[in-house]
Specification:
The chain has four helices and 14 strands. By secondary structure, the chain is mostly beta strands. A hairpin with a 4-residue loop joins strand 6 and strand 7. The protein folds into two domains: 49 residues, no CATH class; 149 residues. Bound molecules: zinc ion.
Length: 213
């Protein structure tokens, strides 16, 4: 995680120092500042901490950090609470939550997050890093029709997904570029029952952050 509390204020790990105590905004336990030369600074729980936020890993990938960097400081890692649960959204703007997913996610975990956030009335925008799936040929553009894509072997993650439920699904596909911003992002608009085929239209991610009023 990149944000912790110091005297009840949200502090970015990059701006934190070793002389203060930092608290996890979720479980209120003391967290440790990790600063290295290669990976960006982050906060980590102590080894036996039992933070209730099962939604996120502590260390983040450069991919994740790139997309978070498109948001303002007060929009990222926002704690969302219901009566029984608390979770940390990757980013929040008004009633829209952004989640960035780089590694494989089980459908149980995916369904759980979707239920948690949509029940509280949030619109959820998922961005999945599918560059590898695209580059290795598991996602292919179908020759028959424009914008129609196919999964060779569909990911189980999406097996219960209903796009009518206030959820937007975006994939970042591979194929070109060196920077994250060079890779195309597509909005998934339709699926068949087992999510082998879908229609994907290229979108600009920034249009979700700054929607036209
Ligand atoms: Zn915690």
């Amino acid at each position: 995680m990149r944000i912790a509390l110091c005297d009840n204020k949200r502090i970015y790990a990059e701006k934190a120092d070793k002389f203060h105590e930092y608290i996890c905004p979720l479980c209120q336990e003391v967290v440790i500042l990790k600063k290295g030369r290669i990976i960006p600074a982050y906060f980590s729980h102590k080894i036996h901490a039992s933070c209730k936020d099962s939604f996120h890993h502590e260390e983040m990938t450069p991919w994740h950090i790139y997309f978070q960097s498109l948001f303002q400081e007060d929009q990222i890692e926002v704690v969302i609470s219901s009566d029984k649960e608390k979770h940390r959204a990757d980013a929040l703007i008004n009633k829209t939550i952004f989640e960035f997913q780089h590694s494989f996610m089980s459908y149980q975990e995916f369904d759980k997050r979707n239920q948690f956030y949509t029940k509280l009335g949030y619109h959820l925008i998922w961005l999945f890093d599918m560059k590898e799936e695209y580059d290795k040929g598991n996602i292919k553009e179908s020759m028959k029709r424009n914008n129609l894509f196919e999964f060779d072997s569909p990911l189980s993650t999406f097996k219960h997904l209903d796009l009518k439920e206030n959820i937007t699904l975006l994939f970042q596909l591979g194929g070109r570029g060196e920077k994250e911003s060079d890779y195309p992002i597509v909005k998934i608009e339709w699926k068949n029952d087992n999510f082998t085929r879908f229609i994907a239209k290229q979108v600009r991610f920034s249009s979700y952050i700054h929607p036209k009023s």
